[in-house]
Amino acid sequence: MRTYDIIRKKRDGHKLTQEEITELVRGYVDGSVPDYQMSAFCMAVFLKGMDEEETYWLTEVMRTSGDIIDLKGIEGFTIDKHSTGGVGDKTSLVLGPVLACLGLKVAKMSGRGLGHTGGTIDKLEAIKGFSTELTSEQFVKAVNKVGLAIVGQTGNLVPADKKMYALRDVTATVDSIPLIAASIMSKKLAVCNKGLVLDVKVGSGAFMKTVEDARKLASLMVKIGAQAGRKVAAVLTNMDEPLGEMVGNACEIIEAIDTLHYKGPESFTNLIKELCSEALMLENPKLTKEEAVNKVIEVLKNGKAFEKLVEMVESQGGDSSMIKDYSKLPHSAKTVELKSDKDGYISQIQCEEVGLSAMMLGAGRETKEDKIDMGVGLKLVKHVGDQVKVGDVIAELYINPERKDNEKAMERLRAAITIVPEKVVARKLILDIVRS
Ligand code: URA
After folding, report:
1. Whole-number Cα distances in Å, 153 to 88, 136, 248, 292, 426
2. Phi, psi (5° rounding) for residue 351?
3. SS3 (DSSP) at 324
4. In whole angstroms, what is the distance from residue 62 CA to residue 185 CA?
5. Which amino acid residue places its CA nearest to atom 7 of ligand 1?
């Protein structure tokens, strides 16, 4: 079928065949389908949707467009976690060690941060010597020995998504449930883990603004995973504010370490309990939720999860003395406080703006070439629902005084925090769970 006819068929709301979807995506990757036709197709999907079968076919052709990481050399139940996007999201740094010391195998490929989102790989590079570039043999060996390794993504994983995502980003077609599901699941399924836990964010700072939409996205991704023979669970979590308290690089490592000692922020610790217990139940369906949560609490309290982080850092060449004594991690030259100029209650902390504020302090990159300042960042002292009075400290900013945009970053952060006169009840963090 001609590309024109495929676009027209979708524009008119008809179901496409597997052959049509495959032909279109393969043509786009090899350059025979131009950007303008793929843009028109994405807009047709955005407006007319795709059913579960079409979305699975789209995922499959995208998944197989580049390298497949088979993980065949790894013994045991391999598990991955994915978050649909977060600010202050240091989950992998805690979830990985917890699951590894409970016997699961965590072979994690993570990304770098760009714009308002931070990347796990950047955060880990706050630890001197830590290498995120292992050969596939070293990666498999590290996971078999330690139970956990975190490395950067290989260059040729799902090139179809790289091209399509860049196009969707500039054609107002990102927030389509089937396109998001295919984009995320193609990348996750290209790495052949046995289990996958999805953290689907809901709220002002997320792609999914309502619980209903997030539930649709979650159940679609869980079904795609099941069809591909993987065990998948999705946890819907609130994103009306950043996760935990810290946003930055070294400061997020510190928060992760505190959480591994069971001394982290309550909300973040609860998310860890939720995601890790779901992962344990995927591996062993006989476990009850309560038993699974108790296992997680036990390894946080007895120090085993932290020891696993130490083991991982050492196996990847990092200086573990920096995490045993985190005063050795990079830190900023100065701390400034952001104080409330109003009496009232915090109703919202816009995640993207907080992320951009941290980026302006030097914690993130505006362009791929920018160098990150590992010690800068910020701590949110107050959260949604908290009462504040004029002069109360809402946030601390860890700054490098030599940088020129510190003042602007401070004002951006102030503008990101809404204070209203009436009492606010914070939405709970865990909103729902979708299992296969
Ligand atoms: N994250 C992705 O990887 N893809 C999307 O389409 C949206 C969020």
Report:
1. 20, 11, 21, 30, 36
2. -60, -50
3. helix
4. 9
5. 180
Residue at token pair 């996205």:
217
User: 382: CA distance to ligand 1 center in Å?
Assistant: 30
Q: Which atom of ligand 1 is nearest to the CA of 165?
A: 6
Determine the distance from the C-alpha atom of residue 209 to the mean position of all C-alpha atoms in its chain, rounded to a whole number: 17
**Residue 204: its pLDDT value, please?**
73
Residue 113: predicted pLDDT: 73
Pick the residue whose CA is nearest to atom 6 on ligand 1: 180
Rounded to a whole number of angstroms, the distance between the first and last alpha carbons of the chain is 35
Q: Is the CB of 183 under 6 A from ligand 1?
A: yes
- Summarize pLDDT for 261-285 with one digit per residue, the tens: 999 999 999 999 999 999 999 999 9
- Read off the tokens for 18: 């597997």
Strand partners of residue 345: 387, 420
Alpha carbon distance 234, 27 (integer Å): 32
Ligand 1: which residue has its CA nearest to atom 5? Answer: 180
Residues annotated as catalytic are 82, 161, 168, 183, 187
Asked whether residue 288 carries a pLDDT value surpassing 80, the answer given is yes
Residues in the chain: 436
Residue 420: phi and psi, rounded to 5, are -120, 155
Query: Distance between CA 127 and CA 111 in Å, rounded?
Result: 17
Angle separating helix axes 304-315 and 91-101, nearest 10 degrees: 100
Closest C-alpha among 398, 354, 410, 396 to residue 373: 398
141-153 pLDDT, tens per residue?
999 999 999 998 8
Cα(180) to ligand 1 centroid in Å equals: 5
Q: Which pLDDT band holds residue 289 (cuts at 50, 70, 90)? A: very high
- 249 in contact with ligand 1, CB cutoff 6 A: no
Assign residue 52 a region: left if phi > 0, alpha if psi is -120 to 50, beta otherwise?
A: alpha
Best residue among 84, 168, 188, 202 to mutate for probing ligand 1's pocket (most ligand atoms within 8 Å of CB) is 84
How is residue 245 written in tokens? Answer: 């308290």
Beta strands in 162-215 (DSSP E): 195-202
User: What is the pTM (predicted TM-score) of this model?
Assistant: 0.95
CA of 385 to the centre of ligand 1 (A): 30
Nearest to 306 by CA among 291, 292, 318, 323: 323
As to burial, measured by CB atoms within 10 angstroms (0-12 exposed, 13-18 middle, 19+ buried), residue 289 is: middle
**Rg for the chain (alpha carbons), in Å?**
22
Pocket test for ligand 1, best of 83, 162, 184 (most atoms within 8 A of CB): 184
